[in-house]
Amino acid sequence: MPADETPRPAGMALDPDDAGRLVLSGDIDVYAVAGHRLAPEQLAGVRVVDLHAVDFVDSAGLGFLIGLSRQVRPHRLRLEGLHGTARQMLVVMGAHHVLDL
User: pLDDT tens digits, residue range 1-14?
Assistant: First the structure.
C-alpha cells in the first residue's frame, strides 16, 4: 500500500446467498488474516473469493489465499474482481500459478 494511503478495515464473510463464495474487502494483510473469525469448516465449501472491494494484499493475505486453495482441493480456487495494486502484487508473488486470477 502506498505510504500516503490510509488502510481500509478488512472484511471477510461468506456470501449469505452463496456459501461457496467468500467476500473480502479492505486491506487483506497480516492484521486481517490474524483477526478473521471464520472456522475451517465454514471455509471448506468456498470455491470463489470475491475481491472487488480489496485494494491491497500482502504476503500474509497471499498465504491465507494459498492455504484456502489447499483446503478446497481437489477444486481450484477462483479469485474474482482482483484489480489494481492487489492484482499486481499477487502476480509478482506468483499466485497465478496456484490460483485462478
Answer: 455 566 566 889 99
Please count the CA atoms within 13 angstroms of the CA of 90 that sit on its side-chain side: 28
- Provide, for the chain, the percentages of residues in helix, strand and coil under a 3-state DSSP scheme, each rounded to the nearest 5: 35, 30, 35
- pTM for the model stands at 0.85
Gap between the Cα atoms of 34 and 2, Å rounded: 22
* CB distance 27 to 8 below 8 Å: yes
What is the C-alpha to C-alpha distance for residues 84 and 33, in angstroms, rounded to an integer?
20
In the structure grid, which three cell numbers stand for residue 46, read together? 468456498
- Strands in 41-97 per DSSP E: 48-57, 78-80
Q: What Cα–Cα distance (Å) separates residue 4 from each residue in 7, 10, 39, 63?
A: 10, 18, 34, 25
